Amino acid sequence: MKIGLSIPDFTWPGGPAKLGSTIAQIARTADQVGFQSISVMDHFWQIGRNGPPEHDMLEGYTTLAFMAGLTSRVTLGTMVTGAVYRYPGVLAKTVTALDVLSGGRAWLGIGAAWNEAESRGLGIPFPPIAERFERLEETLQICLQMWEGKRGSEKPFKGKHFQPERPLNVPQSLSRPHPRILIGGMGEKKTLRLVAQYADACNLFPTPELPHKLDEIEKTAVFGFDTGDKGEKVGQLIGGLRWLAGMGIQTVFGNVPRVYEIKGLEIMGEKVIPAVADLEPAAAAR
User: Cα 222 from chain centroid?
Assistant: First the structure.
């Protein structure tokens, strides 16, 4: 089982003046103790389950680029980009830049977007859900075309919502054939169809209805990494990860409480990550 660190909040002691140094320490520690990836939310305001909109929230790709220069092993991506936030060509170029500058460690996490208040507040168009899924699919198609890097890949794309006339992507991504694509969501009719057609991984919620047969698709889930202040909850956490493996989950992204204190990251690296490294997902759920 692979363990990824998710950072969903930046409202920490010391305020904005210390965010840079704190994130640097978190990124370096996560890289050193064995986390497979680091992800941040692609939100511009804080979301309800984590706090009020006024809490500190950094732009995702700027934050990932900052961490790319401080790490050497972890992969980096958003959990997940809203398809309506950026034009597809700009998104492909952004992820490509992160991939090139990190030495091939970027991945694209993407979904249809859901936070209407945030979008309206910042002047981002927020069409009905059916159109958002259409835009998501066209975004995936354009990104994949731009990452082909072959003769003909610069031909005009004629979609319903996007019509890039020359989807040129130079330099090309180091990850080949393209940066890994993870699609977030649980809907079988829309999201999982897009996963099967375009993606390398899907991100699911840990519920009893989770198992799905998606051959060759990496199954991931979001979970909480609460080890306790002194590691007293490590056994409980490992049990939860075993439960997820029993449902076919291969990679788990989790938030470490008070991550800015670093101790939780160190406990994860010492006691949890090694304990689940050889944990295989249940064959019946793969």
Answer: 10
259: number of Cβ within 10 Å = 24
- Region 245-269 average pLDDT: 94
* Closest C-alpha to 33, from 10, 3, 8: 3
SS3 203: strand
Torsion angle of C-alpha atoms 135, 188, 175, 255, degrees rounded to 10? 100
The residues pairing with 2 across neighbouring beta strands, listed in sequence order, are: 251
Other CB atoms within 10 Å distance of the CB of residue 87:
13
Q: Is a pLDDT exceeding 90 seen at residue 227?
A: yes
Residue 152 clears pLDDT 70, i.e. is over it: yes
pLDDT digits (tens, 9 = 90+) for 5-61: 999 999 999 999 999 999 999 999 999 999 999 999 999 999 998 999 999 999 999
Give the rounded percent of residues in the chain with a pLDDT score beyond 90.
80
**CA atoms in the 13 A half-sphere facing the CB of 154:** 8
The whole-angstrom separation of Cα 100 and Cα 64 is 13
**Nearest residue to 3 (alpha-carbon basis) of 193, 184, 254:** 254
Rounded CA gap, 133 and 111, in Å? 8
HSE-CB of 210 using CA atoms within 13 angstroms: 23
Q: In what order do the strands lie in the sheet with 201-204?
A: 75-78, 37-40, 2-7, 251-255, 218-224, 201-204, 180-184, 107-111, 81-82
What contacts 76, CB < 8 A, 6 or more positions away? 37, 38, 39, 64, 67, 68, 98, 102, 105, 106, 107
